[in-house]
Design goal:
20 strands; 2 domains; six-stranded mixed sheet; about 40% helix; Aldehyde Dehydrogenase, Chain A, domain 1; Aldehyde_DH_dom; Ald_DH_C; Aldehyde Dehydrogenase, Chain A, domain 2; oxidoreductase activity, acting on the aldehyde or oxo group of donors, NAD or NADP as acceptor; oxidoreductase; about 475 residues; Ald_DH_N; alpha/beta; seven-stranded mixed sheet
Length: about 475
């Protein structure tokens, strides 16, 4: 047996056919560990194992499935510090973020779906008149939620704990089995999650994890004939390719894709609140989050002051080692991604944007760091305003009146989460209802974890979180009988 991580297939820890590759700490550029490179054959074997386990698991009492999830939550919570240390090393997240928003949220999600909910509900009886189908009478009906089957979960690199947990926990709660394909940059945390689930009593084959840098591994777990549904979080470009494959076999899809969140700051807004909320783009995961308010639309009356405050806010943030308690902005995930983010900043300059803060690489010898950057005097047709940068970069666009602000916000290929800041709550809600986005934050960037989550347009297909995730990972069956 090698010293590297092994795959988890059918309840067994299996040596990868493709050997191992290094997982790099984006803050230090040192090797965190060695991730397994599965072969397409091993990926298909994981799907076959999930198919074999589905029948028994789907018939297990919901209370028994919930108990397994509850035990997993306890195991994850009990190992919070070592799990968070690994997550920080793999992703470059700050210690506080790794503990609270990565491992902490993962434990909370397993605990949330350890609460069983009714899987069936009565439909009001219907009186039917006599006809060719039979005599007059009353029919009763039940709507029953059934598991979809085998679910492939393809997860993102920005949160290797909360993102997989948000897929695995509701899928298992509904009686599905899963094959997890984690992001190649930071898969080791997902294997720790699989260990926790195994220790919690998940039967063999119910949860499988296969990783790899090769595209063929992801293609195998999406295209497998054993798979009934694909749940994907990642870029819109990859989501399109997955959707094309799913469409050929009519597989269910849940797609959480890109975003270019518009933050409308109206002229009566509390600018301190707006700056604190928008500023999370600079700090939270170093802007590597699809829900970030990256495209700020500021009404003329507050535009100048807002740019000044945001520029000062960005300039004061400490960029550095995520292990240090006062670090606010860690690195981005890789050298390649840093180059991509920097190329967008340079593109913004060429397009005519004014660099108010940042714009230069922080003076650090090692690590993939990007300075929090604010681009002002932008227009909505600039590429930096239209394309997802996925880094600590905010663009600011002025507008004159409410009508223009709404039109600019909706002039986007994306529609995941938008934001409105206004001192007049009625006005803010009126504007929010006009925005073409799956969610709108009113004077906050906070989330309600029972509210449906998903996007319009190129930001995705479907909704999850809370009870909506149970809907997403189930099919509805009607049972009808004569009364």
């Amino acid at each position: 047996m090698s010293d590297g991580q092994r795959l988890f297939i059918g309840g067994e820890w299996t040596e990868p056919d493709g050997g191992h590759y290094p997982v790099t700490d984006p803050a230090t550029e040192e090797t965190v560990g060695w991730a397994p490179e599965a072969s397409p054959g091993q990926a298909r074997a994981a799907c076959a194992a999930a198919r074999e386990a589905f029948g028994t698991w789907s018939r297990t009492r919901p209370e028994e499935r919930a108990a397994v999830l509850g035990r997993a939550a306890g195991i994850i919570r009990g190992s919070l510090e070592p799990y968070a240390d690994l997550a920080r090393a793999e992703t470059g997240a700050t210690t506080a973020t790794a503990r609270a928003m990565q491992v902490g949220v993962a434990a909370a999600r397993f605990r949330r779906y350890a609460c069983t909910e009714p899987a069936e509900w009565a439909v009001p009886p219907q009186i039917n008149e006599a006809g060719p189908m039979g005599r007059a009478g009353v029919t009763g009906a039940l709507a029953v939620r059934q598991p979809v089957g085998v679910v492939t979960c393809v997860t993102s690199y920005n949160n290797p704990w909360a993102n997989p947990a948000g897929k695995i926990a509701p899928a298992l709660a509904m009686g599905n089995t899963v094959v997890v394909k984690p992001a190649p940059q930071d898969p080791l945390s997902v294997y720790r999650m699989a260990e926790a689930l195994q220790a919690a009593g998940v039967p063999p084959g119910v949860v499988n994890v296969v990783s790899g840098r090769e595209v063929a591994v992801g293609e195998a777990v999406v295209a497998s004939g054993d798979v009934d549904m694909v749940s994907f979080t990642g870029s819109t470009a990859v989501g399109r390719r997955i959707a094309e494959v799913c469409g050929r076999d009519m597989k269910r899809q849940l797609m959480e894709l890109g975003g270019k969140g518009a933050a409308l700051v109206l002229d009566d807004a509390d600018l301190g609140s707006a700056v604190a909320g928008i500023g999370t783009t600079f700090s939270f995961y170093s802007g590597q989050i699809c829900t970030a308010p990256t495209r700020v639309l500021a009404q003329r009356g507050v535009y100048g002051r807002l740019v000044e405050l945001l520029g000062g806010y960005a300039s004061r943030l400490k960029v550095g080692d995520p292990r240090e308690p006062d670090t606010v902005v860690g690195p981005v995930i890789s050298a390649e991604h840093r180059a991509r983010v920097e190329s967008y900043v340079e593109l913004g300059r060429k397009e005519g944007a004014v660099v108010v803060a940042g714009g230069e690489r922080p003076p650090r010898e090692r690590g993939f760091f990007v300075a929090p950057t604010l681009l002002a005097d932008c227009t909505n047709d600039m590429r930096v305003a239209r394309e997802e940068i996925f880094g600590p970069v905010v663009v600011v666009i002025p507008f004159d009146d409410e009508e223009e602000g709404v039109a600019l916000a909706n002039d986007s290929d994306y529609g995941l989460i938008d934001y409105v800041w206004s001192g007049d709550v009625a006005r803010a809600f009126r504007v929010a209802r006009r925005l073409r986005a799956g969610g709108v934050g009113v004077n906050t960037v906070g989330r309600n974890m029972e509210a449906p989550f998903g996007g319009f347009r190129m930001s995705g297909v479907g909704r999850d979180v809370g009870s909506y995730a149970l809907h997403a990972y189930s099919e509805v069956q009607s049972i009808v009988w004569p009364g």
